[in-house]
Amino acid sequence: MTTKLTDIAGVIRSKNAGPYELTLDIIFKDRTVYDAVVAADAINRNLISRLYRISEADVLELVAFDPAAAIKITIRRPRTAGDVGETDVYGAQQHAPLLGVVLDLPRPA
Amino acid sequence: MDEIRILSPTAILGYGFPESSFQAGLAREPHLIAVDAGSTDPGPYYLGAGVSFTDRQAVHRDLRHMLVAGRLRGIPVVVGTGGGAGAHPHVTWTREIIQQIAREEGLSFRLAVVHADVAKPVLLEALDAGDLGALHPGPEATVEDVVESTHVVGQMGVEPIVRALDLGADVILTGRAYDPAVFAALPIRHGFDPGLALHLGKILECAAIATTPGSGSDCMLGVLRRDHFLVEPLNPERACTVTSVAAHTLYEKTNPYRLPGPGGTLDLTATTFDQHDDRVVRVAGSRFVPADRYTVKVEGARRVGYRTVSIAGARDPIFIAQVDEILAAVRSRVADNFAHIPATDYRLLFHVYGKNAVMGPLEPHGEPGHELGIVIEAVAGTQELANTICAFARSTMLHHGYAGRISTAGNLAFPYSPSDFKAGEVYRFSLYHLLRVDDPSALFPVEIAELTAEPVS
Fold it and tell me: How much is the pTM?
């Protein structure tokens, strides 16, 4: 069963986590679907590395955070925040590739 | 003391708050009014140049409400990371605003100023001793970066603020501080659990951002008890929900379970979030795990040159189809025309909005839009050279004869005359490292000043 990430997540956002990292938060609308996504390992390092065209080693953290029904991914920033060549000082507009994600989740039992 | 109530008026001093929310907070008889004024998010310029990213009049407005209420009720007011970056010029700027308000409102109080500037000899000695460590995935510190930094600050923990409270301060203004520290110092001084106090501080430092609908310019109340805390928005139009509060724990952090700070890590693996009532969330189980060695995060910025930018649009589809080739030709024409200037003396950059300007190398989408915004940027060792490179690139791009060109009168649409803008000094973060220290307070001297209202004549 394919599901658009934007249909099951209420928040999809990006932000600096210090000047060396970008962090992506996906907060799901309900716990059942969050549990299904986590159980299926549907958001994984390989997906993020393909979406952002980076190596899996540059996906620094990928954590499921149960209290918020959220998955948090932290990647290496292409450059230190504010260095010459910067495109997004706050890192607040780096979430867009996640908006097009379609997940293949098992049908609920 | 079984309960400490803390009023956080706004996410950043100067971002404002509704007076009605602030009054609702005062009606709950808080023991502390505290606010965080700082962030590194606006980038290295503000730390490097010694300038606040918030506006003076907006800061004056917020501080006036806080200081008047604090003095009227005899409760401490703590302002963290004065002036946004918390180095000497930022703290001085904020201190002058506090002094101005004291004069205008006839307030008398004991002011503690806690400085956070880290002297270069201290850093060089630490670098030499291996006590200035990199923060993964950042680079190792270098002697040159230390020496060339215009300002270096350390993020203080609660200890220097506790010391200022011990000295009887009514108002505390700090240099760079760990955001939660301004909220957690008073309760930790009264023996409350540091894990709960710091976790509450993490939420309060963003005020009503952890509510729904969230806002960075509205008030939040924290009620800290011995084994849990409650967070509650003070505007009846907002509510704290388990999701809004738990989700905030994710914000701007690498890993939501382990939040490193001065002297240890806030461990949230056993934290519980429960809906206390419709608008209030109860949090328990957060633990502070002290580190083996106390570390202070240091932040520094150094000047790398001067910037000039020019902003233009392009609407011609033939131009847009070959924009990469055109930019390469312009770059090459600039280098050729100024062949006597070493290529290392300047940098010429193009930000092509409509084509990867926002995400750069991370962009997966290939097709440009029907129109492009082009920002031409030159960074050089002097403002004059930056102006020269930017202007020449701009005029070259305007009249460049690309293949298949039909529109021969000009390639660019400029929204402004003049078309070029001097953006001034350019900085970069030179330090964002961990400094190992023996004494958590030694780097952060407390200065006491008595402010006395002048008699009304």
Answer: 0.94
